[in-house]
Amino acid sequence: VPSTSEMVMKISFDEFAERFDPSLCDGNYGGRMVLSSLADWVEWAALASAVLPWPTTVDAIEDALGWDTYQSKLTGERFSDELPIPLGDALRNVIEDRARVLGWRYPFRFDDRGQLQLRADRDVKKSAYIALLQISLLKSWADFDNAAFQACTKLLEHIAAEAFRRTGCDSAIVGTSVNGGGFEAKLEKIAEELAVRVDSASAAHSKAAKDERVDVVAGRFFRDGRKGEVFILVQATCAKNEQWESKLSCIPLSRWRSYFLEQFSPIGFLAVPYHVSDEDAALLTSLGGGRSFLDRTRLVLMLNGELETLDVAGCDLLKQVRSFSSQHLKMLLE
Question: What is the phi-psi region of residue 122: left when phi exceeds 0, alpha when psi lies from -120 to 50, beta otherwise?
Answer without folding.
Answer: beta
